[in-house]
UniProtKB/TrEMBL annotation:
This is SGNH/GDSL hydrolase family protein. InterPro entries: GDSL_Rv0518-like, SGNH_hydro, SGNH_hydro_sf. Gene3D superfamilies: SGNH hydrolase (3.40.50.1110). Keywords: Hydrolase. One of its GO terms (molecular function) is hydrolase activity. It comes from the Bacteria.
Amino acid sequence: MRYVAIGDSFTEGVGDERPDGTPRGWADLTAAGWAASLGEPIEYANLAIRGKLAWPVVDGQLEAALALNPTHLSFNGGGNDMLRPGTDLERIVDAFVTVERRCREQGVTPILLAGADPSGGLPMSKLIRRRGDELTEAVTKRLRRTDGIVWAINWTDAELRDPAFWSPDRLHMNFRGHHRVAARVLEALGQRVPEGWWALTEQGAPHLGTRDYYRAHVGPWVKRRLTGRSSGDGRAPKFGEWITVSGEF
């Protein structure tokens, strides 16, 4: 089994950091859970880079991922697009269609995800929720008659909207949220989900008050937009080549 993940911060694992500050996240957890369920190691790569829009993910990561000759490829994109004005949802849908088509051409099983819904804790929450609803509906409608896709739809998971699943920046899930997404992916793959992953009992870091939150997270995000910078600038994939994963990560 050879599993490669492409995407943005959601797939890179931002919000679920190890003690040394490196991100883990749902894709790493899925690889570990998959190996544990099979009872044997699997090969895993993760080319995701935070801050990327949907089409830069496809243009910059898809062919490199397929060149690794995977058996399965996961893709999610569009979360960063939805935070920007003038978002063309059909253009994002085209990115999903392109990933599915290229996987089919290469004999790779696509795992398509809808990200979790962060809108309850963010400014412009109604707009973000509406765009996410429309994007999820548009992607599933366009590809619903396509066989061979593994679907992991997190956007409509109402429980996952609870602040307990989100990191202090309110935009990225914490370790509880990433475990819940990994549980959904493993279930979609027909694999055993480790006990407790749907709703871990440990509590995440406390959230900041409104003023401190805007100073620590919203302000820097706005500054990057105004200066044309991305949180992923200069970053390399955390696992650009195959690594062997057993039952833990």
